[in-house]
Write the structure tokens for this entry.
Amino acid sequence: MRPSIKEILAMKPEEKSRTVSGWVRTRRDSKNVCFFELSDGSCLKNLQVIVDKEKYNPEALLSKLTTGAGVEVDGILVESPGQNQPVELQAAEIRLLGEAPADSYPLQKKRHSFEFLREIAHLRPRTNALGAVTRVRSAASYAVHKFYQERGFFYIHTPIISASDCEGAGEMFQVTTLDLNNIPKEDGKVDYSKDFFGKQASLTVSGQLEAEIYAMSHSNVYTFGPTFRAENSNTARHLAEFWMIEPEMAFCNLDGDMDVAEDFIKYVIKYVLENCAEDMDLFNKFIEKGIVESLRSVVDSDFHRVTYTEAVRELEKNTGSFEFKPSWGADLQSEHEKFLTEKVFGGPVIVTDYPKEIKAFYMKMNDDGKTVRAMDVLVPRLGEIIGGSQREDSLDRLTARLEEMNLDKKDYWWYLDLRRYGSVPHAGFGLGFERLIQYLTGMQNIRDVIPFPRTVHSAEF
Ligand code: ATP
Ligand code: MN
């Protein structure tokens, strides 16, 4: 393979000719010389290519070297007299691989709005900001695996099509091969026995319950995969298809769970700051001023930890600042979460011990009978990025919870078996990967940190 532009920019000037390929980003002309910047996506910086118009003179070709064109250049790497780059390429031979006519190629301006770019998701990775997001996202994915693999966690591929009836009902996308124009019915209801799996199926909203199965055999496991929620909320923090990382640890309580969550977030931040410095600098300058410094300080300090009850008490002191009045028993609104992180604690905060009514059936009950061993990690700008808990490991209490919540025990037979045979304390959490990328880059809209966003009424590519 040819060296990438990233590699070439790190090289010293040399005598021999080499071939470089990429796409023209910008071009400028003086009387005798044409300069164009070449990018191949390997890094934010471009390679400057110098064409001597007199020495090299196929006019027809030069006029086609416009923004977006794909080219191959043979030339000599020389020291650059400019400030912006150590080396540049003195072109000897240029081959146009694919032109991008200036009158129709949409990416002409230096800066386009993110809204506009969303409409051309097939071209937007060629811009500086989305290009940087792409590299950071890739580095962060690697850091996720690295963190868990270094700690001996096993990567479990939990199913994408879920046939268990026990996940959050309303938000699920159904998976079916039934003919929607001719649905088989029995007593007025859909006859799912005729469907592909012989029962109702849907896209997974979480791999947690399945991850618990493997935590009960392999102790420490994690999933990292796509998750689907038919969220009708049109926010800058919700997607219908997003990626979630869900570790699950046996012999672990809520404190251990919080420790892993905190170490994990810090690890990924650190990895990205160290390995994506150039891209982070772009976010620091143009997207969220000061983000690098603030992320650095997050790595160096402890996350605050408060109970839900304490958090609500803090919020009640500031009731006037909110659209929704905070009160014990109600879920924290995103404005409350942001207030806690930005105004009260000035950094990430972990809220624990939520009222059982607003949390899932599987969370371990506290001795007060009112709250559960839940924890949410909240961060400035976004609010919740992690939701987790210690799981209920007692068969009796879990069964009682199912009954209390009018859930059918039959649907949870295998989940209850985990409490019947060798049940041990365990805990885990889910981190929304796109929210983490938003946190790392300062990008305001979650649609701009995933290559192909799916949201309500929107899935083009
Ligand atoms: P929220 O209250 O913000 O909608 P949630 O309580 O529904 O989140 P969980 O079910 O706890 O979220 O999921 C774990 C994590 O997955 C969340 O902390 C968040 O980071 C992420 N997440 C949840 N829903 C979405 C979504 N629709 N799009 C992107 N990320 C999401
Ligand atoms: Mn949600």
User: Anything to note?
Assistant: The domain at 5-98 is CATH 2.40.50.140 (OB fold (Dihydrolipoamide Acetyltransferase, E2P)).
